[in-house]
Amino acid sequence: MKNHTKISNTYTVIIGCGRLGASLATELSNSNLDVLIIDRDKSAFRKLSPAYGGLTLIGDALDYKVLEEAQINKATTLIAVTNNDNSNIMVAQICKLNFDVPRVLLRLYDPEIKCIFSDMGIETISPVTLSIDEISKRINPVKRGAKI
Amino acid sequence: MKNIVFFKDKNNFGKLIILIGILLAMPLLVLPFYPSESKYFFSFFIPSFLSILLGMVLVITLKKERNDLQWLKLLKNSHITVLFTWMYGFVAGAIPFVISRQLPFSKALFEAVSGWTTTGLSVMDVESTPAIFLFHRSFMQFCGGLGFVLVMVMFLQGKQAMNLFSAEGHPDKLMPNLKKTARITSSMFVALLIVGTFSYIVFGMPFFDSLLHAMSALSTGGFSTKADSIGAYNSLGIEVVTIVLMIIGTTNFAVLLLLMRRKFKQLIKISEVRFMFLILAVFTTLVSVLLFYKVYLNLGESFRVAIFNVVSALSTTGFSTVTYNNWPPVGVGLLIILMLIGGGIGSTAGGIKLTRVYIVLRAAHENLIKRISPSRRVSAPFYYRAQGKTSLDHEIVDDTRGFVTFYLVIYVIGTLLLTLSSNSSLVDSMFEFASAFGTVGLSIGVTTSDMNTSTLGILIFGMILGRLEMFIVFIGLYSGVSLAIEKAKKLLSLK
């Protein structure tokens, strides 16, 4: 029961219903978490599994009204996974600075832009870095576990 | 809590049957207050116990729900599950009447279908029915209004819950989590039930009747404890309370939530709410003027009768205060139109639903405008839902048109069949079938305790199609047949 109440207090907002966003939303919703997913394009929600039990919201996440409608101030986690790095960064910064969302994660295609917000407490996930890590681990087993 | 974890990944069909078993046992709670009726204990206990047992067996024996990602399979499975659960509910709900010899099986089935589908057509003589059965009927409506899947999701949420939830015809999600959506819907309902019951008591209705009437008004069911329905009390206060409860019952859950959160600004923008009040205003005026001229009641009384019956028909509740036998055919026609339109989408009501009628009318209007404007004219129509501004695109319009067409085709077929089997006039059949198909429950006299089995069957079929919004029944049957063929092919190829 303790575990249960802890779970129901989290509320995740996902920006961008692409392949990553949609699978993530479905996964979180399947484990009974509160999820809301935002996308500009209505047809993007097609990618959600029919088992998805959370909310969807059509709108541009860079719009304050849309974020307020998503009750972003109640969110415990924000995940920005649109296909545009700059939008991801901007949404993440808005949510971190203006809405005080405790945990903000974003995806970056270009790991080099990371420096612009390195001291803001935003967590980044970059497919490029992850892939480099994984591939070099596989082809060069001696260096296993070494950081690039 | 442990038990719930145990159930989590198990077969949904089994779980739903256990739930039906539990719901069937609820009327037993009435027994302590009516000790003289304890002889009926077993007529509820036996079906309830057997259902729970059957559900347990199914949960243990049937395969686990897999997290299938193939959408067609998901769609088929969820529709079959929902359809069969409801079918089982209908039969199980009828058993208590049969065991206690209150009704023969066909009529018991009619009563149960009328209960679970929140229709409210009745073949029972309510004045002589024991209290426990009256409670059973109203409680069926209350739960039927919410839906089995919604009640189940409240307690446990498996992986397929969302499929089942949308298959049962709940279009709206209110909260970012399905379980919370179900919980908030039912807690709103229970809160309203308590408020409704107390308001009835304030206006002088006995407690038991208040509870039952509040249950059937909120679920837009319409079972009453009196033969003359609400008219038996002849009290303005009770009628006003009923009107308010019926309007609440026919309102979309998402809109109700806005109301509870006191977001009135958003509330008055919603197209469906505006459309509902427009229709109520227009039809109430028409009917009261008509009654004033044709039935020679005085103006105040005409208005009182008109507003009650208009709300009762539009909300698909089916409480009545008067008989329609002395109404002019135009008045009956107006009520038929109201019953066809029906209540709010995503509420407990039936009918085509207000939003769909609104969308079809808007689309027709757009089409008319298109015809008289230059061919390069661009338009981007939109309407307001509880969730906010929504564009009225081709997809929505197409879906809605498809639904309305199917609805009207079935309505015409059903009406003609009913005329054939019951030997009543065409107007009476139109009224009665609109009433059954829209899960309303107003009767013009075709539904009587001595009608023949085919009439019963047509009305039962109409009620089921109406409550489950047709497509579930069709898709469910289609999937059932295609699955059976698949199994048969497998068996043949094994040999």
Quaternary status of these chains? heterodimer
- Mean pLDDT metric of chain B: 85
Please give the count of helices of chain A: 5
Q: Overall mean pLDDT score of chain A? A: 83
CATH architecture of chain A: 3-Layer(aba) Sandwich
CATH superfamily of chain A: NAD(P)-binding Rossmann-like Domain
CATH class of chain A: Alpha Beta
Computed structural class of chain A:
alpha/beta
Radius of gyration of chain A (CA) equals 16 Å
Q: How are strands sequenced across the largest beta sheet of chain A?
A: 3-2-1-4-5-6
Shape of chain A: globular
Summarize the structure in words.
Chain B: Belongs to the TrkH potassium transport family. The complex is a heterodimer of chains A (148) and B (495). Chain A is α/β, with parallel strands linked by helices and 148 residues long. Chain A has a six-stranded parallel sheet with strand order 3-2-1-4-5-6, with helices on both faces. The longest helix of chain A has 13 residues, at 85-97. Chain A has a single domain (2-143), classed as 3-Layer(aba) Sandwich (Rossmann fold), CATH 3.40.50.720. Chain A has helices at residues 2-8, 19-30, 64-69, 85-97, 127-139, and strands at residues 11-15, 34-39, 55-58, 77-80, 103-107, 122-125. Chain A starts with a helix and ends in a 9-residue tail after the last helix. Chain A is globular and about 50 Å long. Chain B has 495 residues and is mainly α. Chain B has a domain at 266-467. Chain B is 67% helix and 2% strand. In chain B, strands 1-2 form a two-stranded antiparallel ribbon. The longest helix of chain B is centred in the first third of the chain and has 29 residues, at 71-99.
